[in-house]
């Protein structure tokens, strides 16, 4: 265990006035850039985005962020204030969908590989099993299991600083996957069920990869 520095209560920022006093004023353009609809630039960004993170909250306020990904432009724009996000086969925990039923407010962050800028969209969401909407967002001839219908309230482009600091798209900064165990090994470690036989562990790894290929859509 590493030694930790205590969090001293006298330095905790506890109200918005104190918060804003601690930082410089917002740049004028940053304050005015928020739109209430999808303009041509936002639409163009969405058409190129193969990945997003969606933030939701449960009924008791517990926060969650979940990734969603598909080929470029997988999020369908119905109109300037409505998006469709397909729901594909997963682990069926349904965290995001259950949260939307409890608290419809959602925050979306869209990424395009190679772009250091991101697109942020906030709004409210519903879950639809409408066969026409599910077919509209089909992939490999398989309709979505359901769609998240997002009513857009805020749209704004986010500057490049975070991705440039992280060097997210810089191949020379990419981490060798072999530095950590496989996903299935980590999960078995976490629940205390790690097989001792390396051959069994290899079979589990191979089964996970086969499952990815079989159930992607």
TrEMBL record:
<dbReference type="Pfam" id="PF01243">
    <property type="entry name" value="PNPOx_N"/>
</dbReference>
<feature type="domain" description="Pyridoxamine 5'-phosphate oxidase N-terminal">
    <location>
        <begin position="38"/>
        <end position="159"/>
    </location>
</feature>
<keyword id="KW-0378">Hydrolase</keyword>
<dbReference type="InterPro" id="IPR024029">
    <property type="entry name" value="Pyridox_Oxase_FMN-dep"/>
</dbReference>
<dbReference type="InterPro" id="IPR012349">
    <property type="entry name" value="Split_barrel_FMN-bd"/>
</dbReference>
<protein>
    <submittedName>
        <fullName>Phosphohydrolase (MutT/nudix family protein)</fullName>
    </submittedName>
</protein>
<dbReference type="GO" id="GO:0016787">
    <property type="term" value="F:hydrolase activity"/>
</dbReference>
<dbReference type="InterPro" id="IPR011576">
    <property type="entry name" value="Pyridox_Oxase_N"/>
</dbReference>
């Amino acid at each position: 265990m590493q030694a930790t520095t205590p969090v001293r209560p006298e330095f905790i920022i506890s109200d918005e006035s104190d918060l804003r006093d601690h930082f410089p004023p917002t740049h004028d353009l940053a304050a005015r850039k928020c739109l209430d609809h999808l303009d041509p630039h936002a639409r163009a960004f969405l058409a190129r985005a193969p990945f997003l993170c969606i933030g939701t909250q449960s009924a008791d306020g517990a926060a969650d962020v979940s990734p969603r990904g598909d080929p470029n432009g997988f999020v369908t724009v119905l109109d300037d204030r409505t998006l469709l996000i397909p729901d594909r086969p997963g682990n069926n925990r349904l965290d995001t969908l259950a949260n939307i039923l409890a608290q419809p407010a959602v925050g979306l962050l869209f990424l395009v590989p190679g772009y250091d800028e991101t697109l942020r969209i906030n709004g409210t969401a519903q879950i639809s099993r409408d066969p026409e909407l599910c077919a509209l967002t089909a992939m490999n001839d398989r309709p979505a299991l359901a769609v998240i219908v997002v009513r857009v309230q805020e749209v704004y482009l986010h500057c490049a600083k975070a991705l440039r600091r992280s060097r997210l798209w810089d191949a020379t900064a990419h981490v060798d996957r072999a530095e950590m165990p496989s996903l299935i090994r980590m999960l078995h470690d976490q629940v205390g069920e790690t097989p001792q036989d390396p051959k069994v562990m290899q079979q589990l790894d191979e089964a996970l990869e086969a499952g990815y290929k079989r159930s992607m859509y």
